[in-house]
Amino acid sequence: MIVLWITLGIVGILIIWFIAVFNGIVTLKNRTKEAWSDIDVQLKRRHDLIPNLIETVKGYATHEKEVFQKVTEARSQAMQAKGAEETGKAENILTDTLKSLFAVSENYPQLRATENFQKLQDELTDTENKIEASRRFYNGNVRDFNTMIQVFPNSMVAGMTGSKEFELFGMDEAEKETPQVKF
Amino acid sequence: MYKNIDSNKRRTVLLIFVFLIFVIGLGYLLSWYFDNQFILVLAVLIATIQALVSYYYSDSITLAISGAKEVPHQEPFLNLHRAVENLALTAGLPKPKIFLIQDSAPNAFATGRDPQHASLAVTTGLLEKLNKTELEGVVAHEMSHIGNYDIRLMTLIVVLVGVVALLSDFFLRWTWFGSRRRSDGESGQIQLILFIVAIVLAILAPLVATVIQLAISRKREFLADASGALLTRYPEGLASALEKIAQDREPLEVANKATAHLYIESPFKKSTAQGKGWLVGLFTTHPPVEERIRRLKAMIK
Fold first, then answer.
1. Inter-axis angle of helices A115-150 and B78-91, to 10 degrees?
2. Is A180 inside a domain boundary?
3. Least C-beta-crowded within 10 Å: which of B74, B130, B212, B229?
4. Domain that residue A29 falls in
């Protein structure tokens, strides 16, 4: 009889523990998803600004078709990208092409003097700062979540309920790759 | 972080509870003395209404007594808006409303009942005297107060404890002056009850002050400094902002005893605070600024 009660007690505690861990995982998962939507809003804003920017630059810098094409391509790549890691890579490429676009526009003082161009440049910078800000919040959440489902014994609950790790967003390649030593 | 939020929520409930007991207890005492049930009913009503109003409107009240006006989303305030937006994103909080106080003394505070109903107030002096990284440091400090639910507790204290402090002040003065002027028999009884109330309040006032000290412990400011520095990843910004605020000798005119603890750094400057007597002394809620700067600088590695 006593053995039965002890067994029941242990099973009860296990069930309560399982529920607690499971709810913790769900809460953190939703918080991370919410954090991703913050990034998404800013990425959309960035993508929306780019056609305007190209149109404005086109009016002054007519001979720079190649740059425009590269930016447009990078933009559509970034818009199609799925998942945090892929999006991060595509956005990095977009950032590089935008840099070359702004470098080109340096050669056109009249363009740089226009209010429209200045405003677009300002808004893009603001958007990039906001992407950076929301990236930090997202990555912080991802790290918390991944740690939570990786540590034992939480990993068992995560495995049983099929919780997957989130991907970090927008790490620079330099940050990620292990440095190669060449002789 | 989440432990802090829970403890703040618990303390808020405790504060409201203590306040209700206090006012209703006072009402009971008076109704017992005057043998009038109506006073007790009135006290219960007043206490309940006041607690409710405090919970929902103490942020508006606080902003109103500080003379703060909402900042429009346009130049020359775009930089302020952007700093707040970016730090709100980093902290994962909704953007608080931004208010401006017309005062050349640099200072700032945050108020509201939760992050969804939060407001951030800065003085014109703060915008004029601080550079971008310093301003970000200050905003980050306030964002941590918002995220920690410090604001709910601190703002409730403004209204609830403010009332108690005011009452005790009032009763003390009344009996003090009254007892010296009149000593005839008829008002003697009322004098006596008021005197008892005054004594009770005089005993309670330091207790109340202790509650405030507990609630707004030094730890809270240090914690907000630390998590603010974590948000900007740049402790130097806040450290040099605190230095500038501390060095500024101008007292903040709109701050008073009830709102002083809200600000990022005590709005009473040392020279003026000493003259104001025991009440201000009890309300010294901020840890010494030198210590805060030292700790921030220790984070720079």
1. 20
2. no
3. B74
4. 2-169
What are the phi and psi torsion angles at B104 (to 5°)? -80, -10
Q: Could B90 and A133 be called an inter-chain contact, meaning their C-beta atoms sit closer than 8 Å?
A: yes
Partners of A81 in beta bridges: none
Indicate whether A182 belongs to any domain.
Answer: no
Of A31, A34, A130, the CB nearest to B86: A130
Q: Tokens 């990208």 identify what position?
A: A81
* Residue A141 in this model has a pLDDT that exceeds 70: yes
Position A10 in a domain: yes
pLDDT digits (tens, 9 = 90+) for B184-215: 555 567 667 777 776 776 666 666 666 665 55
Using one digit for the tens of pLDDT, what is the confidence trace for B259-295? 777 888 877 665 444 444 444 455 556 677 888 888 8
B221 labeled part of a ligand binding site: yes
**Nearest C-alpha neighbor of B79 from the set B1, B16, B154, B131:** B131
| Contact between chains at B87 and A126 (C-beta distance less than 8 A) | no
Number of domains in chain A: 1
Cα separations in angstroms, B257 against B61, B105, B155, B168:
15, 17, 13, 14
**Residue A103: CATH number of its domain:** 1.20.1440.20
Catalytic residues of B: 142
The confidence band for A13, taking pLDDT boundaries of 50, 70 and 90, is very high
